[in-house]
Amino acid sequence: VRNSLISGNETIKMALTIAVGGRVWRKFFKTFPFRSNSALKRFPTCRANGRLYSTSSDVVLVRKDEESGIATVRMNNPPVNSLNPTLMVALRSCFEELEKDKTCRALILTSQKPKVFSAGLDILQLYQKSPDHVAQFWEKVQDMWLALYGSRLITMAAINGHCPAAGCLLGLACDYRIMAEGNFRIGLNETQLDLVAPFWLRQTMIDVIGYRQAEMALMIGALYPSDKALQLGLVDKLAPIEDVQTVAEEEVKNWLKIPDQARAITKMASRKPLLDELRRRKQEDIQTFRDETTRESVQKSIQQYLEKLKAKK
Ligand SMILES: CCCCC/C=C\C/C=C\CCC/C=C/C(=O)SCCNC(=O)CCNC(=O)[C@H](O)C(C)(C)COP(=O)(O)OP(=O)(O)OC[C@H]1O[C@@H](n2cnc3c(N)ncnc32)[C@H](O)[C@@H]1OP(=O)(O)O
């Protein structure tokens, strides 16, 4: 159904784009505009000795191999890469910078700290905060996701540890997922916090693992061990934790054999409807999140969840 939402006009545009050769990328960007962001200015790019895009806050570390055009983006927000506003803005800026870099062809997203890819949204940002704070926070989640899910690049998640909730959201936004073998978990456990995954996150889960499995996983807020995640198709490959990055690089090299423009146009053809839908319904989605999250009963659940996390020790 979603594919059929791409109009005939767009299909013609895509065909023309392929046909006109030299001007292909200009046409491509016209057809599928990628948004830029003034926040970029706050995170100056630094280029030296093959390192680049190190953000001013260093919560995101980026290294690009100039020869292959592969950029590795490491989340570096200890202890568990919880997605707070700083990390999300830095990630978005980084995705957008790489997008603009014509020599960049692929992006590997991973964690600087093995054993935890990302613990998901920073729960403290959702607890006892003003509705405005929660609304602004959610917009940062949306913008980060739009930049990654809508990327022309090959995007590969090298999931070197636990990957709950919005960690999984990041993984699902990528084209391919490689996860560490062993006792690491991945999934959308939002309902366990009395939260409801928004339509665009639910849709990506359905797109990746199919309707029945996604429906069940979302309802029960399942977190799967990596072998089960592989079986479900939630991740595409497993590797020993110390090899996740290398395996991701090898996989990217296979993908690099495919011509960029055909791959990127094909990807956008399947993702554009959902991207457009979120862009269209952005404010509605923010309001829903703000109203749901600040509800008293949800605040109580978040408080209990936080207590459970602390009590674990
Ligand atoms: C139709 C209607 C539509 C309505 C739409 C409305 C709303 C949409 C709503 C929701 C969609 C949201 C999508 C995403 C949501 C989220 O991401 S919520 C976050 C969920 N995350 C989790 O459940 C993971 C919690 N963390 C853990 O399970 C573990 O920390 C771990 C990741 C497995 C790592 O374990 P370990 O290495 O043992 O580390 P610790 O547990 O000891 O943690 C270290 C410290 O970090 C703190 N912490 C952990 N996770 C978070 C977090 N997510 N946010 C903030 N802080 C976190 C933990 O408390 C420890 O702190 P202290 O050292 O004790 O101070």
From TrEMBL:
Subcellular location(s) of the protein: Mitochondrion matrix
GO cellular component: mitochondrial matrix
InterPro entries reported for this sequence: ClpP/crotonase-like_dom_sf, Enoyl-CoA_hyd/isom_CS, Enoyl-CoA_hydra/iso
Keyword set, alphabetical order: Acetylation, Fatty acid metabolism, Isomerase, Lipid metabolism, Mitochondrion, Signal, Transit peptide
Pfam families: ECH_1 (PF00378)
GO process terms (BP): fatty acid beta-oxidation
GO molecular function, one term: delta(3)-delta(2)-enoyl-CoA isomerase activity
Catalytic activities: (3Z)-decenoyl-CoA = (2E)-decenoyl-CoA; (3Z)-dodecenoyl-CoA = (2E)-dodecenoyl-CoA; (3Z)-octenoyl-CoA = (2E)-octenoyl-CoA; (3Z)-hexenoyl-CoA = (2E)-hexenoyl-CoA
Pathway: Lipid metabolism; fatty acid beta-oxidation
Function: Key enzyme of fatty acid beta-oxidation. Able to isomerize both 3-cis (3Z) and 3-trans (3E) double bonds into the 2-trans (2E) form in a range of enoyl-CoA species, with a preference for (3Z)-enoyl-CoAs over (3E)-enoyl-CoAs. The catalytic efficiency of this enzyme is not affected by the fatty acyl chain length.
Subunit structure: Homotrimer.
Family statement: Belongs to the enoyl-CoA hydratase/isomerase family.
Protein name: Enoyl-CoA delta isomerase 1, mitochondrial
Source organism (scientific name): Branchiostoma belcheri
